[in-house]
Every structure is written in structure tokens, then in C-alpha cells.
Amino acid sequence: MLYYLFRYLNQLDFPGAGMFEYISFRSALAIMTSLFIATVFGKKIILLLQKQQIGEIVRDLGLAGQMEKKGTPTMGGIIIIISILIPVLLFAKLDNVYIILMIITTIWLGLIGFIDDYIKVFKKDKAGLSGKLKVAGQIGLGLIVGLTLYINDDVVVREKTSMSEIGIQTELVDEGFTSQAPGTTRLTTDEKSTKTTIPFFKNNEFDYESLVAFGGEYAPMLAWLVFIIITIFIVTAVSNGANITDGLDGLATGSSAIIGATLGILAYVSGHVVYADYLNIMYIPNSGELVIFIAAFIGATIGFMWYNSYPAQVFMGDTGSLSLGGIIAVFAIVIHKELLIPVLCGIFLVENISVMMQVSWFKYTRKKYGEGRRIFKMAPLHHHYQMKGYPEPKIVTRFWIIGIFLAIITIVTLKIR
After folding, report:
1. Cβ(141)–Cβ(237) below 8 Å
2. Which residues contact 303 (CB under 8 A, 6 or more apart)?
3. What is the C-alpha to C-alpha distance for residues 28 and 50, in angstroms, rounded to an integer?
4. Integer Cα distance of 288 and 358 in angstroms
5. Burial (CB count <10 Å: 0-12, 13-18, 19+), residue 19
6. In terms of C-beta density within 10 A (0-12 exposed, 13-18 middle, 19 or more buried), how is residue 15 classed?
7. What is the layout of strands, in order, in the sheet containing 171-174?
8. Alpha-helical regions (H) of 205-250
């Protein structure tokens, strides 16, 4: 909203109004605003949750310090959501399709998580919202995202063309490449694309259309169908992964902040024509605006850690964890970096896999031997280390360190060909 106000003021030569044209300036304002909201107003929200007796219901699983958390306010994800949305509404271009998708994602999964937490707290049902309804909501969001990226004309990738292709619809663009003489122009065309970024492939790109080449003239349409299916899977997997990871004070929050910072770097270089050319990665017009959203995301998660770090004064609940995972998934998809998620979100992936392995092995051995056996002392993985006697802060810190290592690897892959 303020972006449009200051753009109008800039037309009137109002001093300093032109600063709002810069993504870097608005991103700085977004992260500072989200930090301020999360830390200052977060306390007021926590007091309100305490007043409403919205406390965590804890089952005794024999974990050290577990029962001490009983009654700690939950549904703190409201703090994260508010801290993200307000700066985005203030400083981002609200007619940008990518920003609209991220706002929808935040509210959509936040609402699903809120309903789940509400059932747990007020209905005293520890199971919360049924798994089928959760998955249905995640699938619904995946469909919205996938179909929007397919249908919307503003969702394009700028491809470089050769002079021999001058017959197609192109435009001459002064791209200001540092590797070329000033004023160099390059023939380009903006087009719908099912290409995505993946390391070790030629030009670090992979086209989903190659998976359905057998479709002949229908291959482009089939490629989008594959893309939508993959989008649904990623949204569901990552949001559930963040939800499972949210089991220790600050674990999911800190991991999400690290992932968010990495996605911010990837969004900035993907939306900046000079850096995209230098790194030889696809340039995505209008995606630079996403840096403002991710800046608010980083500020919100770090600000929330003020109260969520050990010992936690508030838990985010499913209201926060589902939102964080969904935001990360959709953000990676819209900047064509979704195939980097297994590396970047390695913590979420391992936590997810540990649960799947534990449940599958338990069922298999119970069927074969008459009693269920376990791979880990307890799943998800962070509880395994708790059962082994590791202090909670040490587990969280080490997971963060691993998350930073994975984030560095993700960024380095931009130059691995």
C-alpha cells in the first residue's frame, strides 16, 4: 500500500519518495517491520493466548523436560502470519502475481493449521483436524498454485535467442551485462516454460517436457500436468515436513529462517537480469518482488524466536508450522528452484523420512515377528536424540548448523554444471 502512495508522491517530486522503487530498500523496511511486530506485539499476543487458556496439551512420552511444557501457549503461528502479511501489504506490489500467490499460501495453510489447533485446544481432541482434510487442503493449494502458474500470462521466463531466430516475437533489451560492452543488446523473448533449476544438468536446467516427449504435439500440455502434480506433492511434503520438525523449541523456526535466507538469495539473483546472466541461470521477470516477501518471512521467524527459543514461552502450533512449510514450498516453486528442496530442506526431509521408516518397519516386523520393532528410539529424528540423552538446546543448535551447511551447498550448486 505504501509502495503505491510513494510512487504517486515520487511523481510529484516528493523528496525521498523514489527510494520505494528499489527492492533492496523495501526489503530492508519489510524485515525491520516484521521483526518489530513479532517482538513487540508478539508479547501482547502471547498474553492474550494465556488469558484465553490456549495451552499446549502434552502426552507423556518419557522425554526429558517434556511435561514442563504443558500449558505453554500454542497457536503462536498467528504472530508469524501477522508479522509476514503486514509488511508485505505495506511494501510490496500487490498486483504482482507471485506476491498474490504467496499471500494466498500464507492465509490458506495458516487457516488449516488454525482449525487443527482450535480442535486440539478447545475440543480437547489431541488428534486435531483429520489427516485426510489436511491433505485435501494442501492438495487444493497445490492445484491453485500450479494452475495459476500455467494460466497467468505474467508467469514467464526470459529466454535468450540467437540471431537466426529473428522471425519469432522478440524484443531488444539493454541488459547491462557486466561481461559485455556497455549498451550491448540481446535478443530475448518472454515465454511460458516448464523448465526448472537443477544442478549437474546442462545449463543447470531441466525441462519437465523431456519426461513426456512421447506425447508429441501434446508434450507441452502434458509437461504442465506433470508440473502441477509435482507442485501438489512438494506443497504437501514440505508443509508436513515443517509440521513434523516442530517438536523442539526453536527447531522449526530457526531452520525455516535459514531456508528463507537462502531462498531470498536465489530469488534476488533469479529476478535480477545482470546476476542471472552472470550465474547463467534463468531470469524470471517480476520475481524480484518476492525478495520483499521473503524478507518479511525472515524477520517474522527470527522475531518469533525471541519467544520460541529454549525454554519456549510460546509454540507456533500447526498454525505456524504448516504455513512455514507451505510458504517455503510455493516460494521455491515460483522461482523454479523446487528441485533444490531435497538439499535445502534436508532437515525437513530427514525428519519426514525418519517417521516413514519407523512406522513402516514397525508394521512390517509386527506382521512378520508378531511384535513391532523400531529403527530409532523414537521418531521423528530429533526425539531419537532426546531419548539418547542429548540436551534439547544442543540438538536444536546442531540441526541449525546442518541446515546452514545444506543452505551453502544449495547456493554453490548454482555454479556446478
Report:
1. no
2. 34, 35, 36, 37, 38, 39, 42, 79, 83
3. 32
4. 41
5. middle
6. exposed
7. 157-160, 185-191, 171-174
8. 219-245
Any residues with CB less than 8 A from the CB of 361 and at least 6 apart, and which? Answer: 373, 374, 375
Rounded to whole angstroms, the maximal C-alpha distance in the chain is 79
Q: How far apart are CA 196 and CA 206, in angstroms?
A: 5
Q: Do the annotations mark residue 318 as ligand-binding?
A: yes
For residue 334, give the nearest of 255, 250, 270 by alpha carbon.
270
Nearest to residue 243, comparing CAs of 341, 367, 337, 327? 327
pLDDT band at 186 (very low <50, low <70, confident <90, very high): low
d(CA 251, CA 241): 12
Q: What is the pLDDT of residue 14?
A: 85
The answer to whether the annotation marks 243 as part of a ligand binding site is yes
pLDDT at 74: 87
Contacts of 40 by beta carbon, 8 Å cutoff, 6+ apart: none
Model pTM score = 0.90
Distance, C-alpha 261 to centroid of its chain = 10
CA distance 115 to 129: 7
In angstroms, the Cα distances linking 101 to 106, 214, 257, 316 are 9, 32, 20, 22
The string of pLDDT tens digits covering residues 340-381 is 999 999 999 999 999 999 999 999 999 988 889 999 999 899
Q: Is 220 exposed, middle or buried (0-12, 13-18, 19+ CB in 10 A)?
A: middle
